[in-house]
Design brief:
Blueprint (H helix, E strand, L loop, with lengths): L4 E10 L7 E10 L2 E7 L9 E4 L4 E4 L1 E3 L11 H8 L4 H6 L4 H9 L3 H17 L2 E7 L6 H17 L3 E9 L10 H18 L5 E6 L6 H13 L3 E6 L7 H7 L4 E4 L5 H10 L2 E4 L1 H6 L8 H6 L4 E3 L13 H11 L4 H7 L2 H6 L16 E4 L6 H4 L6 E6 L2 E5 L4
Parallel strand pairs: 1-4, 1-5, 6-7, 7-8, 8-9, 9-10, 10-11, 11-12, 12-13
Antiparallel strand pairs: 1-2, 2-3, 5-14, 14-15, 15-16
The structure holds zinc ion.
Zinc ion binds next to loops.
């Protein structure tokens, strides 16, 4: 059955395209799950029997959360109290807390329990206008538990109106079975786990927590080299707590994104710029961990490295299921402008996921968009903890809210 065009009119549009086009009295035409046309309503090129009056709401691309650890069991509220009492994230990790405490809870959860826990968080993101997100593994740390996490991530994308990109992050922490044998663990990931899970269609990208408390550059390089041979996308947890050369390695591997970047240098930024790597900023983790070292925003701007912002939803360093909060905090704690923040959760987030046809409202792109009851798209990051999203359309279909009557 061929789709008929649908007109979405009487709306103000922030296209988020490279020209920064906005239309004060705009309209958008969709055909099935694609955008056919965007422009001033007075120039609508077609008529359609289905027309929706958006009553002056602002329209943006659907938001994209390009860095999440959405699938996990349990919580780490106890550790948060330790953090507040002055312990560091690294100290908590070194005494067996941190990631490994979530690993214990996640291993003990069934696939359906994990799905239910993650679904509750996902519903929060969807209500905020999110139409695509990335979900990492990394709390299983056995082949079967990593598989379980990735299967849940895929299932979320099948059961909810959202596009899910999965990332294999078994190189998140050294599991107890490999204590003191990190090289052996990386060899297992490289030679067995990654090829197996890739063959099962569960992996879209590979990520490494490349950090002094996790995996070194040599170990990361071995895993990423295999990822490249499998033609998988690469992203990297880089320079969050220290600088051991993670984003330089990621850039050499052609990574889609380097994420965190608090301790990145100007040379790291230059390497990312040359490689076309997106800088994914995670202000909620920065804030929650009470960090003081800010990512090199001015250098990223000067080098024209695209900046994305993500929730980093995870139980240890970013207990939040709000991309809007991350956007609001990116403006406050990292000094991004509201215009930069909007691109960071749309076009640049799409780029971080290798999604060439999302994150922009233009002909040929996916018909994923959100309508906002705001005076301008800047309001999305102006408000703290107030969700002004009134309608979400994903693939041309209304998935949240109601079209105004
Ligand atoms: Zn992360």
């Amino acid at each position: 059955m061929s789709a008929a065009p649908v007109i979405w009119r009487n709306t103000r549009i922030a296209t988020c395209d490279a020209q920064g086009q906005r239309f004060e009295r705009g309209a958008l035409v969709t055909l099935g799950d694609r955008i056919e046309w965007v422009g001033p309503e007075a120039q609508l090129p077609v008529t359609a029997s289905t027309q929706h009056d958006l009553q002056g709401y602002w329209l943006t691309p659907g938001l994209i959360d390009c860095h999440t650890h959405l699938v996990f069991a349990g919580h780490r509220a106890g550790e948060w109290r330790e953090l507040q009492a002055g312990a560091s994230y690294a100290q908590i990790a070194q005494r067996g807390g941190g990631i490994l405490s979530t690993v214990r809870a996640t291993r003990g959860a069934s696939e359906s329990e994990l799905f239910a826990a993650a679904a509750a968080r996902l519903e929060c993101l969807l209500a905020e206008g999110v139409t695509a997100l990335e979900i990492k593994s990394g709390y299983g740390l056995t082949l079967s538990d990593e598989r379980k996490m990735l299967r849940v991530a895929r299932a979320l994308g099948q059961h909810y109106p959202v596009s899910v990109r999965t990332t294999f992050l078994a190189a998140h922490a050294v599991p107890p079975e490999f204590a003191g044998r990190a090289d052996d663990y990386v060899a297992a990931l490289t030679d067995e786990w990654l090829p197996a899970l890739h063959a099962e269609g569960l992996v879209d990208a590979v990520d490494v927590f490349c950090e002094h408390i996790a995996f070194d550059v040599g170990q990361a390089a071995r895993l990423l080299e295999r990822a490249q041979r499998l033609q998988l996308a690469i992203r990297m947890h880089a320079e969050q707590l220290s600088n051991i050369g993670a984003s330089q390695l990621a850039a050499r591997c052609g990574a889609l994104s380097c994420d965190h970047l608090e301790y990145s240098t100007v040379a790291d930024v230059a390497a990312m710029a040359r490689a076309g790597t997106v800088a994914v900023l995670l202000p909620i983790a920065f804030f929650h961990l009470q960090m003081t070292q800010v990512p090199p925003i001015a250098a990223l701007r000067r080098a024209q490295v695209p900046m994305a912002v993500a929730s980093d939803c995870n139980p240890g360093s970013a207990p939040s299921a709000s991309l809007q909060l991350a956007m609001a905090m990116a403006a406050r704690v990292f000094g991004l402008t509201p215009e930069e923040v909007l691109l960071a959760a749309t076009r640049h987030a799409a780029q971080a996921l290798g999604e060439a046809r999302r994150g922009v409202l233009a002909a040929g792109y996916k018909a994923d968009f959100a309508a906002w009851d705001v005076s301008g798209p800047e309001d999305i990051s102006y408000w703290l903890g107030r969700n002004l999203c009134r309608l979400v359309v994903r693939g041309g279909v209304v998935t949240q809210g109601n079209v105004p009557a």
